[in-house]
């Protein structure tokens, strides 16, 4: 289900909605820690989680790995958050493609 549809459904049901935002890890240990944290926090029932694409010098591939694992392993809807500040247009275009 699309995130906007989840939000609309929650509003129609009159229930509180929330999500969590995570930054992609820069190291292998960071990836392990993040996966563990996502697993624990998904028990709280967020509508979706937001993974920031390439934040703070993290690799874009790490974002894709986190998103893929979150959807496949934990069944949580995901949104990739692209940071455009201080990024050249060609890098943003590449990420969007």
TrEMBL record:
Pathway: One-carbon metabolism; tetrahydrofolate interconversion. Gene3D superfamilies: 3.20.20.220. The keyword Flavoprotein applies. GO terms for cellular component: cytosol. Its cofactor is FAD. The keyword Electron transport does not apply. One of its GO terms (molecular function) is FAD binding. GO terms for biological process: methionine biosynthetic process; tetrahydrofolate interconversion. Keywords: FAD, Flavoprotein, Oxidoreductase. InterPro entries: FAD-linked_oxidoreductase-like, Mehydrof_redctse-like. It holds the Pfam family MTHFR. Belongs to the methylenetetrahydrofolate reductase family. This is Methylenetetrahydrofolate reductase (NAD(P)H). It comes from Lunasporangiospora selenospora.
